[in-house]
Amino acid sequence: MINPFLCLYKKHKIVSSKFIFISASKLMKALYHVEKDLYICHQESIENILTTIMSKLKAIREQKNLTQEELSEKSKISVRTIQRIESGTVPKGHTRRALAQALEIEESGLMADLPQAAAPAETVEMEEGIEERIEEETVSINYSYVKIINLSSLLFTLLPPLNILVPLLLMFTMKQKNNLVRQIISVQMIWTVMAPVIFMLGIFLKLGKQFTPILMILIVLSNVFIILRNASEIDRNKKLYFCLKFSMI
């Protein structure tokens, strides 16, 4: 005999399961739409932030009657970076600070009315430390000293490795441990290594005894040219003409 209560229980259980399944499906759909709306709002917020930064920097620059090149020269920030910021890239701390100083405004002027996201303390400290090191290095560059360090190699071109040791000593004495000086010394290190290799290659090729002194003179003159060309570039553009993509010190 079929128990009517058992049938009623099973029927109720099936109906309840269907109800739970339907409710869960509706809940998932609702959550999906909420998440989608939040994503759209987030994207719009980001676009608004970028638009604000773009318009502020460009407006202030034009108000000061500055071109991108002139602002680059005043702030020591590359033209490409300024173009990226005016195209929507958010400037970092050091870049923002340099631009604000060049434009003679408060740093907050570039970021006014923008929501500030809270960052972990460790991240903030790390970014501040990096920015401080960058700022210290930028401020500490004395181009007169850099030029002297560069030209010091010229006096010892015929006496390697003094062409490396003397600039290295001056770097610490003059407190010019910046990227420019490191590049100057790195270039001298490369030349000091390559010079005997080229000389030995000339001997190996048996180009003749008369060619040997000519080769030595050419090797020395190549370094003289490198040093003088870099000195000229330091005077004109505050950078090196001959440099490496890496530093050896």
TrEMBL record:
GO molecular function, one term: DNA binding
Organism domain of life: Bacteria
Chain segments annotated as transmembrane: 148-172, 184-205, 211-228
UniProt-listed Gene3D superfamilies: lambda repressor-like DNA-binding domains (1.10.260.40)
Topology relative to the membrane: Multi-pass membrane protein
Name this protein carries in UniProt: Helix-turn-helix
Keyword terms: Membrane, Transmembrane, Transmembrane helix
Residue ranges occupied by any HTH cro/C1-type domain in the UniProt entry: 57-110
InterPro entries for this protein: Cro/C1-type_HTH, Lambda_DNA-bd_dom_sf, MamF_MmsF
Main location: membrane
Pfam families recorded: HTH_3, MamF_MmsF
Compartment list: Membrane
